[in-house]
Sequence to fold (428 residues):
Amino acid sequence: MSVNIFLVALALIGLAQGASFGQDSRIRYDNYSVYKVRFETKDQKDLLKQLAEDRNNFRLWHEAKNEVHLMISPSALNEFEKQVLRANVSAELFIENVQALINTEEAENFMVSRDGSFGWKKYNTLEEIYAWLDEILAAYPVITEGFELGQSYENRTIRGIKISYKSGNPGVFIESNIHAREWITSATATWLINEFLTSTDDFVRQLAESHDWYIIPVLNVDGFVYTHVKDRMWRKTRQPSAISTCVGVDPNRNYDSHWMENGGASDNPCAEDYGGPAPFSEPEIQAMANYVSSIKDKINVLIAFHSYSQLLLSPYGHTSEEYPPNFDDQMEVAKAYADAVESLPYGTVYRYGSSAGILYPASGATIDWAYNEQDIDITYTIEFRDTGRYGFILPPTHIIPNAEEALIGIVALLDKCEELGYLKLKTL
Ligand code: 0X9
Ligand code: ZN
Ligand code: ZN
Fold:
């Protein structure tokens, strides 16, 4: 009896410690700031990217042709200021304290749901998303079908949903949350699923019913869980490296298409864009590739959701020397999306172009693999809101406006695809 009480007490202490350990062991970003740095020459860019290699103090949030967004630890601010002067570039403070944004986000999530219920006024955990998915599948058994891509490195199931109102529809595939910290992507994907099933708007019903949808709300499940329990700013997968203490691979550099070419990925396991020890080294990406291959004849359009910077990016990622044969069509399609989004009262502006053309070489990405190796002629990366004010920690009040933009954008994109002849059935 007393032994039992002792054991119960021990268990309770263990639980309490576990809980506080879980809390306290979260990686914090107190007084980490984010600067937007504009540059002109390659030397300036190289100097800045070299800074970012000191991973304890600098982290690259975003990179484009003429600017980088750098997160900087408080202790490295002096060094940063020195380098900015030395390189003669201009730096603008965007976020003063990353931890403050994370705290606000956490408080907002908690205020909206103390009970772990699902919704779009907050960001949901993987558990909440999967529980909601189960409800949706149960509520719409005829139109929907759940499927599994496979297991992640940490043995989580990667789940997807197919929505099909009738046979003979063109197929649209949506990949979401391949990058762990890009929470707005799964929030948007789940909102779209809900709209496709419940909306009473004619134009949404028309869109939903005339396409077959294959949607993966969270592809990088391990990384996503890790951003919720440990490090809000995590990007990669969670598979350890055999040659380094650094963990994870950039899953959007891991596909077997021009893998590691042209500096489009790093061979350093500590880098945020590490391509992995081999193509398809990540079980999540192998699973995704197997699934897409198995249904590629049914897929007309593939869209990968990312954040942030409000861009539509088309192939190629591995080179800007060459452009795909249907590049002009892709630009028309992108323009349709951008124009539609801008016409909403929010007035949000999206820019577009090829990935390597307007951003940087990025090889082994989903959309390039789908385009180059799977004969899917319209593939897009969409980088959602915002342009840096909040970056990855976009307040939940943006979820619905962002999702409305995605919806109207996708309507316009698919209308243009239809007009240009991209929605014909591939196998007859
Ligand atoms: O670098 C990436 O993987 C994407 N940007 S993000 O900030 N979300 O990490 C852009 C990928 C676009 N490039 C290709 N599709 N090749
Ligand atoms: Zn090649
Ligand atoms: Zn991304």
